[in-house]
What we know:
The chain is an alpha/beta fold. It contains 11 helices and 9 strands. Strands 1, 2, 3, 4, 5, 6, 7, 8 and 9 form a 9-stranded mixed β-sheet that branches.
Amino acid sequence: MAQFAKTTFSHASYAAFRPSYPTALYETVLNYHDGPKSLCVDLGTGHGLVARSLAPYFTKVIGSDPSAGMIKQATSLTPKKDFPNVNYQEAAAESLPFLQDSSVDLVVAAQAAHWFDYPRLFPEMKRVVRHEGTLAFWAYKDHVFVDHPGATDVLNRYAYGDSNDLLGPYWSQPGRSFVQSKLRNIEPPRDDWEDVKRIEYEPRAEGSRSGTGTMFLHRRVKLQECMNYIRTWSSFHAWQEAHPAAQSRQEGGNGDVVDEMFDEMKTLEGGWQVDNWEEHEVEIEWGTGLLLARKR
Length: 296
């Protein structure tokens, strides 16, 4: 999470442009969960979205994040009058000294599990999660323009191409590979966890809901919103550091890698070659992976 912890990272943009999670995802987690709902812990809470969403179901919710900026953003978005049972702690997921042994009923991590150090994380999860408590980690990979295969191909090339002018070299690894694999790299130790379940979705650029699996994340967005979302990627922030003179056209500059990406998309997508093209709306879907496990 090093990029998100830097003072130059826009935590407000992250909160504004990242996707939210549907009721169906939370229902899937809660239906799997068995037993008390006294304490939920949200690891890598970011701006506190999941902590706030699960607050109605638990007596107490704690969101932790190693980034002081993220904790500040989460706190500002979580007024005590509306969420009296939600608190935040600046802490890494691998060390949670403020939690008692066997005190946690549900531990979640949304788009954060790929950052964890698992040789250290799982012993801490073994310590804090109660018998038959639930672990629920989920992640989303790159989005697909479901009606635009050409634009999707351009996105994938810019996201993972090897050139230093593209975003590929700037992903933190092996974390990004965890997202791309829909968290299949994460294996809860069998001596400590049972009833492991995985729910996945792989989208295709062949129309809405043309992918395989259970879809959770989709949205109709304006192209400008999609560009702003890509600029919240950790790889983009690292690219910016390597190209300090590049400034987006939105900010009055000559363009950055995202501007170049969408320039190329527009040459392939005739419907995007219109005045005020930034306002043009498209359907996007994300590939997702949800990992569920029960503490022995």
